[in-house]
Amino acid sequence: MRTQRRLLTGWGRTAPTSATVARPRTAAEAAALLKQAGPGRGAIPRGLGRSYGDAAQCAGGLVLDTAELAPGFRLDQEAGTVTAAAGTSLAELMERLLPHGRFLPVTPGTRQVTVGGAIAADIHGKNHHADSSFGAHVRWLRLVTPDGAERTVGPDRDPGLFWATVGGMGLTGVITEAEFAVVPVETSAVRVDTDRTADLDEALAVMTATDHRYHHTVCWIDLLATGRATGRGVLTRGRHARAAELPARLRRDPLRFRDRSAAAVPPRVPPGLLNTWSVRTFNAAYYARAPRRERDRITGVGPFFHPLDAVRDWNRLYGPAGLVQYQFAVPFGAEPVLRGIVSRLAAVGAPSFLAVLKRFGPGTPAPLSFPRPGWTLALDLPADLPGLARLLTSFDERVLEAGGALYLAKDSRAAPAAIRAMYPRLDEWREVRARVDPDGALTSDLARRLEL
Amino acid sequence: MRNAVGAVDTVLLLGGRSEIGLAIAERLVRGGARRVVLAAREATGGRGLAGEAERLRAAGAAEVHPVEFDAADTAGHEAVVAEAVKLVGDLDAVVDAFGVLGEQAAFEADPAAAAAAAAATFTGHVSADLAVAARLREQGHGTLVVLSSVAGVRVRRANFVYGAAKAGLDGLAQGLGDALHGTGARVMVVRPGYVPTKMSAHVSAAPFPASAREVADAVAAGLRRGAETVWVPGVLRYVFAGMRVLPRSVWRRLPR
Ligand SMILES: Cc1cc2nc3c(=O)[nH]c(=O)nc-3n(C[C@H](O)[C@H](O)[C@H](O)COP(=O)(O)OP(=O)(O)OC[C@H]3O[C@@H](n4cnc5c(N)ncnc54)[C@H](O)[C@@H]3O)c2cc1C
Ligand SMILES: NC(=O)c1ccc[n+]([C@@H]2O[C@H](COP(=O)([O-])OP(=O)(O)OC[C@H]3O[C@@H](n4cnc5c(N)ncnc54)[C@H](OP(=O)(O)O)[C@@H]3O)[C@@H](O)[C@H]2O)c1
Cis before residue A71, ω within 30 degrees of 0? Predict the structure, then answer.
């Protein structure tokens, strides 16, 4: 197998470290690699590197890129499930499922993530309030553990190891394959209602009152608006469109979908392009352009679920210093904390564009899974923003005090003590991990930094 | 591990009593570093490092480990690095801050003493920094912060033994930085002007001085940016761009 020493970062392009990257094609190859990595500096699986921080890197060690893992794709229409190799991207799955009238049970804000990454981070989509997270839809998965064993685990087969793997950030083994539910759809379109919300409280109120009526909801928040407009946003809510709802020209091929991006950002972007001024201008224009109230608009799954995928490599816009994504969740009742953080960001003029607010429903039993009932806010900031470290640490404290947590797939800067306090079931998870990886062969920069 | 905003967890300070080095270590501790190794002569016996360790603990360090380190013992430098790794694990930031300024007139009167000082200011760094670089390369991350000096940018009559050694060190650090390019490990060359410390107490202040704290702030900012070269204060970059092209006849006559 070809291996290559490479510098790796997450989507935020911060804190690069180098590792030997290998692309196993079979479970046996993955097992051999894990064995070999054990006594050295460890190993970690990597999907498409869309986690923002250092979850899919292993400095000085081995990174198992899952892109070439076989076998491929098996759709079981009767059971309503698909079986896919862990390295399959959700983009590819959408292309293959939609012609059969099937769609993913959960999709994040980009379709450029793998099945393995989706399970390992227990990702959530705009439908979390209705459908929970990705792990809730997995029937079973195949896991190669450092002892060389290949295990099949699921909610009813070694549930301890299964739930430790869901949300386990690759630290329990390499997922090689999984079967999960896929939902029936009539079209590749979404029927969307859009509303501008004048401030944060209005967004919270409307979402609380109407979320149950919509399958997918998300609210974009303008974090640079101040005064009475603090936390104003654009709320979009939708559901998969029925064939009869499509305009005539789309009805001929209602399931049509192609994975492509319209534009790309050049490799070198000068530092400081995204600053308070440019982001304020963008946010204001975005808000102004959004309809005040619009009903039943038909749009494609791409623009609705993955608007950012339209611009390839948009993370380069942040220049050489990269970006930090901050995503936290707080339980219902902790709205004052959410409000406090939004006002503080507005007050300091932190240049965040496209902050995203969601309402979470019930979570999964996974000890390290992030989504839990409550509110979640995700925002991007330039990594070299002065005072950023202190600002975010102060938010950590508020989130922790409210009984909330940070999302490991997005983290790149939290302190180990904060994460330990936010995930009180960490020790329970560690016990399962110790069972399948007693020598600690699996580790990542994230695991080292946060002492997971 | 270094995080996305430049904070580190572990620090090895070579020159565990250096005022500038300690200011940097303290700054990194305040930024989140929890474990520090102080490498110095008489680390445990003799003078010890109790005061230095106390200062870092007061700043929030959970662990401060003294380790015996002598610049002259070049054969022992790999072992020093290995011991630091044993104590704290991966080295996220290594600060190379040892050196001797000395007095030019005394050096001219005692060539052997000059060579010994140059060994502490240059040759000892060759072995120490190479040993550090090997470790950083192996672990796939980490930053070596080398305290160079404007004195090495263009060597002056007034302190050419020190200046020449610093010029050597600066070149070593740059070369090492290039050698490590793409390995995840990096080298940051720091070029302060005059910094009032015990080292420089016997010479009068030069224009554009900086405090040890300002050097520390600049290093922390450099870590955040992933900078390769840091001048303190920043204006010295431009001052020395000019100094470098001054005619030799003028340069020679500079008072200090
Ligand atoms: C623009 C954008 C929008 C996003 N929106 C959302 C969102 O709405 N909701 C959400 O939940 N997330 C979101 N994310 C985060 C993303 O969904 C997760 O980080 C996901 O894990 C990335 O998948 P990946 O294949 O790129 O995995 P990587 O980033 O490569 O790896 C992520 C983790 O999964 C582990 N892993 C990967 N493959 C395997 C495997 N085969 N076996 C075991 N472990 C494995 C890795 O070790 C690592 O710990 C977004 C990311 C981006 C860039
Ligand atoms: N101060 C300035 O104006 C200035 C300006 C530019 C650059 N710098 C550079 O910055 C670095 C730190 O300087 P500083 O101002 O902090 O000086 P400092 O306080 O005098 O620190 C220098 C340290 O080097 C140590 N050292 C000397 N010889 C050694 C040897 N043989 N083995 C081990 N350690 C030895 C000394 O340790 P002991 O305690 O054992 O003597 C001393 O603690 C130096 O590289 C210096 O050249 C300083």
Answer: yes
Strand, coil or helix: what is A391? helix
Cα(first)–Cα(last) distance of chain B, in Å? 42
Q: Whose CA is nearest to atom 4 of ligand 1?
A: A109
CB B16 near ligand 2, within 6 Å:
no
Rounded mean pLDDT, B109-117 = 97
For CA atoms A116, A121, A126, A131, the dihedral sign is positive
CA B108, B109, B115, B121 dihedral sign is: negative
Residue B12's closest CA among B166, B129, B99, B124? B129
Strands A17-22 and A62-65, by their bridges, are parallel
Once rounded to an integer, what is the mean pLDDT over residues A127-143?
98
Residue A375's SS3 state is: strand
Cα–Cα distance measured from residue A377 to residue A346, given in angstroms and rounded to the nearest whole number: 14
Rounded to whole angstroms, how far apart are CA atoms A273 and A69?
39
- For residue B239, how far is its CA from the centre of ligand 2 (angstroms)? 24
- Nearest CB neighbour to B4, from listed A14, A18, A58: A14
**Identity of the residue numbered A10:** G
Q: At what angle do helices B212-225 and B19-30 cross, to 10 degrees?
A: 50
Quote the minimal CA–CA distance from A113 to chain B in Å.
21
Nearest CA in chain B to A451: B1
* Peptide linkage before B233 cis (omega within 30 of 0): yes
Instruction: Give the rounded distance of the alpha carbon of A225 from its chain centre.
Output: 26
Residue A94, burial from CB neighbour count under 10 angstroms (0-12, 13-18, 19+): buried
- Write the ipTM: 0.92
Residue nearest to ligand 2 atom 18, measured at CA = B18
CA dist., res. A359 & res. A218, Å (int): 8
% of residues, chain B, pLDDT over 90:
92
- The DSSP secondary structure of A32-87, one letter per residue, reads HHHHHHTTTT-EEEESS--SSSSTT--TTSEEEE-TT-----EEETTTTEEEEETT
B199 C-beta closer than 6 A to ligand 2: yes
Residue A354, both tokens: 């496209």
Q: pTM, whole model, 2 decimals?
A: 0.95
DSSP string, A137-177: GEEEEEEE-TTS-EEEEBTTBSHHHHHHHTTSTT-S-EEEE
- Asked whether the predicted pLDDT for residue A38 surpasses 70, the reply is no
Whole-number Å distance between alpha carbons of B182 and B171: 19
Rounded-to-integer distance, Cα A21 and Cα A58, Å:
10
Contact B4 A61 (CB under 8 A): no
Tell which atom from ligand 2 comes closest to the C-alpha of B21.
Answer: 16
Segment A209-216 mean pLDDT: 95
Q: Is the dihedral of CA A349, A351, A354, A358 positive or negative?
A: negative
- CA distances B116 to B102, B110, B120, B122, Å, are 11, 10, 7, 10
Q: Are B92 and B140 in contact (CB under 8 A)?
A: no
Average pLDDT of chain B to the nearest whole number:
96
| Phi, psi dihedral angles at A353 (to 5 degrees) | -110, 150
Ligand 1 atom with the smallest distance to the CA of A371 is 11
Whole-number Cα distances in Å, A262 to A308, A309, A310, B67: 10, 9, 5, 57
**Are A15 and B2 within 8 A, CB to CB?**
yes
Residues of A with a Cβ under 8 Å from any B Cβ are: 5, 7, 12, 14-19, 41, 53-54, 58-61, 320-322, 324, 383-384, 388-389, 392, 412-413, 415, 445, 448-449
CA–CA dist A377, A202 (Å, integer): 15
